[in-house]
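Memo to structure team: turn this sequence into structure tokens by end of day. - J.P.
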Amino acid sequence: MKRLTGLKKRNTINFYAFIAPWLFGFLVLTVYPMLESFRLSLTNTGFAGDGDYIGFQNFIQAFTIETSVLIAFKNTFLYVLMFVPCSLVLSFFLGWLLSRQIRFLGFFRSVFYIPYLTAGVAVTIMWGWLFNGTFGLINYALSFFGLQGPNWLGDKSTALISIVIMNLWSIGNGVLIMLAGIQDIPRSYFESAEIDGASTWRQIISITIPLSTPTIYFNLVIGVIGAFQLFNQPYILTNGGPVDSTMTVSLFIFRNAFEYGKMGYASAVAWALFFAIMAVVLLLQASQRKWVFYGDS
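Reply from structure team:
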């Protein structure tokens, strides 16, 4: 018994020794900043770091007095509603195509994944040039068909849609995750369906999609969390314009914290965004029992 006890102690020591670097980083770089930001959200702290305790006044001001916060949340929700479904459909379609036995399969997998690895700022600037209303390549291509392209990023009706299209270009990570999920489906299911005379479309509807729902659910949750934090493209290309049509919550937080010096107010909006993301994820988690199919269940 003493020997077992000593082995357990060594295992315990080894366990904490191995996780110590991660645990230190998690506590210092995640937990502490979260607690500090919540403390700041209850104060009127500015750039200098001095401020008084004002309770929930920042939250009250954000959602009952200033309409700009609601506009930012509305734009963010619109982006999530546009980007996430499109990315899921496109990821599934491309993942299914890549799961087929085609030539140069490794090449195509790399082609779809490389945009995900490229630098965000450089890619954003490149897309800004493509979407330019005066000399952009997209409008230039449309002119060959006699079409007058819009001022993509300068028109409030197309600016947010342009950002959605821009980010759909870099969904390679979701495509590979979807591909892995599809390839994990036992081949015997498809062979049985082929023997029964099922078409390719019927196999997709009855086999591929149902058995891919765990992967789809994973991409859905990750996609929602990432979409709510949209920042780079609005900040670099439009700075929230035109007419606040691309003002997202993350950009609103950045402006108030680092341009206007309202650290406490920005922290309050950040926590509001956190609770919004948590609420949506909890709703998705509750709904997955009705549509996510696990083969062993």
